[in-house]
Design a protein that fits this description.
491 residues, alpha+beta, Heat Shock Protein 90, 5-stranded mixed beta sheet, 13 helices
C-alpha cells in the first residue's frame, strides 16, 4: 500500500523528493513553533484579562460587609459572573467543619479587618511562589491589592481559591474556574516547541537517509546486481545507476567470455601444429638444436595455458564448500618436501584465552584454545590450494626456502609464507599484483615466470573477502600474508 502511494503521488526523482520531504519537515517544525508561541501568547492574554476580577472582588466584599448578617447568604450568589468569578459565604456555625485559615497562605499582614482585610490563598495543584507571599503591594487600597493578586494567581497555572474573612468570622470564598485553572506553563510550552522542532530535524535526517538508501544498497551490492531486487519505489536516478551498472557488468562479462573463447580456440588450434612440430623435431640430428626447439614449444604452450588459466580463473566455476584448511596447507607443504624442496610447515598457532583475577583470587590463568578450535571453513579449496601453491613455489624459487605458518582464530585464518630472498622493492609492491607484470625484465620464463602467480593469488583471496599483503622482513626475505575471514565454529 505504501509503495503504491509513493509511486502515485511522490516525485520520481531524488531531488524533488528531498525538497518535498524537507518542506514537510519544515512545515511540521513551524507548526510546533506556531502552536507553542500561540499558546504562550494566549496564556498571557488570559492573565492580562483577569485584572477586571480584582475590582469586582473588592466591590463584592465591601457590599457584603455592609449588608445585614441575615441577607449576606441570600445575596452572595447574585454577584457571580458565570465561570469567570464565583462567590460563596461560609457562615460562623459552619466554621467548625471548614479548615482553619492557618492551613492557607496569608498574602498580606498589614491589617486585620475592615477596608483592608487579610487575604488567604489556597492553591490546589502546586505551592505559590515566594514573590506573591512576600508582596504587600499596595497595602492601602484593597482594589489595587486584589487587582495585583488575581493576575499573580493566574500566572501559577493552578486551580485556586481566595478566602477573605469578615469581622464576625464569616468568610468570603472567591473562585475563578475560567482563569484560575490548571494549564500548561510557558516553560512547558517552550519545551514542547523545542522538542517538536528537534523531532522535525531528526525526522528529516532519518527520512533523507531512507530516501538515499537505494544508492547505499547499490554500492554494497554492486557486484551482485543480477540478484538485487530493484524496487519500484526507488528514484529514477537509482534505477538508472542500477541499469547502467548491470549493463556494464554484462558487457564486461561478454567481453571476457569472448576473449577467453578466443584464447581457448587459439590454444586448441596451436596444439595440432605444435604436436607436428614436436614430431618433426625428433628427426633433427643435432641434439642441441632439437632440445631448443622442444623447449620453445613448451614455452609457447605454457604461456598460452597460463593466460587462459588466468582469464578463466576457475573461481566462479568452483562452488563453495566446507573443508579443512590445516590438511590443505599441510598437504601442499608435504608435496614440496617430498621432491626435496626446502619447505617447512611450522606448528599451528591458536589463540590463548587469558583470565584476570577476581575479588576472590588475584591469580591469572591462560587457557589455550587449540583443543576447542578446528580448521573447518567454507570456501573454494581448489582455488586456495592453487594460490598457496603459487606462494610457496615463489618463495622456493626466488627466496631459496619457504617457511609456512598457519594461525587459526574463531573469526579468521592467517597464512604466512616467509623466505630468505632479496624481497620486493617498496615501489613495486602494487605492480607485482598486476597480471603479466614481472620484476625480471628479460621475459625469460626460466628466470621471471609468466607474471601471473601473484595476480592469481590476489584474485583468489579477494574472492574469499580476505586480504593479501607482501611485507619485506627487517633483515632479509619476504613475508606473504593471507588473511581470510571465517565464521565462528559451534564448539
Amino acid at each position: 500500500m505504501i509503495s503504491r502511494f509513493v509511486e502515485k503521488y511522490l516525485p520520481t526523482r531524488i531531488r524533488p523528493r528531498i525538497l518535498l520531504f524537507g518542506f514537510l519537515c519544515g512545515f511540521l517544525a513551524a507548526s510546533f513553533a506556531s502552536v507553542g508561541v500561540g499558546a504562550i501568547i494566549n496564556r498571557r492574554a488570559e492573565i492580562a484579562e483577569t485584572t477586571w476580577i480584582g475590582p469586582v472582588i473588592a466591590r463584592v466584599y465591601e457590599e457584603i460587609s455592609r449588608m445585614p448578617l441575615e441577607r449576606r447568604l441570600l445575596s452572595v450568589g447574585n454577584f457571580n459572573r458565570s465561570d469567570a468569578v464565583q462567590f460563596a459565604l461560609v457562615k460562623v456555625h459552619e466554621l467548625n467543619d471548614a479548615p482553619p485559615l492557618d492551613n492557607y497562605f496569608l498574602l498580606n499582614t498589614n491589617s486585620q479587618y475592615g477596608p483592608n482585610p487579610r487575604i488567604y490563598l489556597d492553591l490546589l495543584d502546586r505551592n505559590p511562589r515566594q514573590k506573591i507571599l512576600k508582596s504587600d503591594y499596595p497595602p492601602e487600597d484593597l482594589t489595587a491589592k486584589l487587582t495585583f493578586l488575581v493576575s499573580a494567581i493566574a500566572r501559577h497555572d493552578s486551580r485556586a481559591m481566595l478566602y477573605i474573612p469578615f469581622a464576625n468570622g464569616e468568610r468570603l470564598v472567591v473562585a475563578s474556574p475560567k482563569y484560575w485553572q490548571a494549564r500548561i506553563t510557558e516553560v512547558q510550552w517552550l519545551l514542547i516547541c523545542l522538542a517538536g522542532m528537534a523531532f522535525s530535524g531528526v525526522l528529516y535526517a532519518v527520512g533523507t537517509r531512507a530516501l538515499l538508501r537505494p544508492f547505499k544498497v547499490l554500492s554494497e551490492n554492486s557486484n551482485e546486481l543480477n540478484t538485487l531486487n530493484i524496487k519500484s519505489i526507488w528514484p529514477e536516478e537509482a534505477k538508472g545507476v542500477a541499469y547502467r551498472l548491470s549493463t556494464e557488468q554484462k558487457e564486461k562479462a561478454e567481453v571476457l567470455d569472448e576473449r577467453t573463447r578466443m584464447l581457448t580456440a587459439i590454444s586448441h588450434d596451436l596444439r595440432t601444429p605444435a604436436t607436428r612440430l614436436r614430431l618433426r623435431a625428433e628427426y633433427i640430428e643435432d641434439e642441441s638444436l632439437r632440445n631448443k626447439i622442444l623447449s620453445d614449444l613448451d614455452l609457447m604452450l605454457g604461456m598460452t595455458r597460463d593466460a587462459i588459466d588466468f582469464l578463466k580463473g576457475g573461481l566462479e566455476r568452483e562452488e563453495e564448500e566446507y573443508f579443512e584448511i590445516v590438511s590443505l596447507v599441510q598437504s601442499i607443504c608435504d608435496d614440496f618436501s617430498d621432491v626435496g624442496m626446502p619447505v617447512t610447515f611450522l606448528p599451528i598457532q591458536y589463540p590463548t584465552l587469558r583470565t584476570t583475577g577476581t575479588v576472590f583470587s588475584s591469580h591469572e590463568k591462560s587457557v589455550p584454545l587449540d583443543g576447542m578450535l578446528k580448521g573447518n571453513m567454507k570456501g573454494r579449496p581448489k582455488a586456495l590450494q592453487r594460490a598457496i601453491t603459487n606462494l610457496v613455489a615463489n618463495a622456493v624459487k626466488y627466496g631459496f626456502q619457504a617457511k609456512v605458518s598457519l594461525t587459526i582464530e574463531p573469526s579468521r585464518v592467517l597464512i604466512e609464507v616467509m623466505d630468505k630472498g632479496p624481497g620486493i622493492p617498496e615501489d613495486e609492491m602494487e605492480n607485482v599484483l598486476k597480471p603479466f607484470y614481472r620484476l625480471e625484465k628479460s621475459r625469460n620464463r626460466e628466470t621471471g615466470g609468466s607474471g601471473l602467480g601473484l595476480s592469481i593469488v590476489n584474485s583468489v583471496i579477494q574472492t574469499h573477502n580476505g586480504h593479501f599483503d607482501l611485507i619485506n622482513l627487517p633483515v632479509q626475505g619476504l613475508n606473504a600474508t593471507v588473511d581470510i575471514p571465517r565464521s565462528i565454529e559451534m564448539i
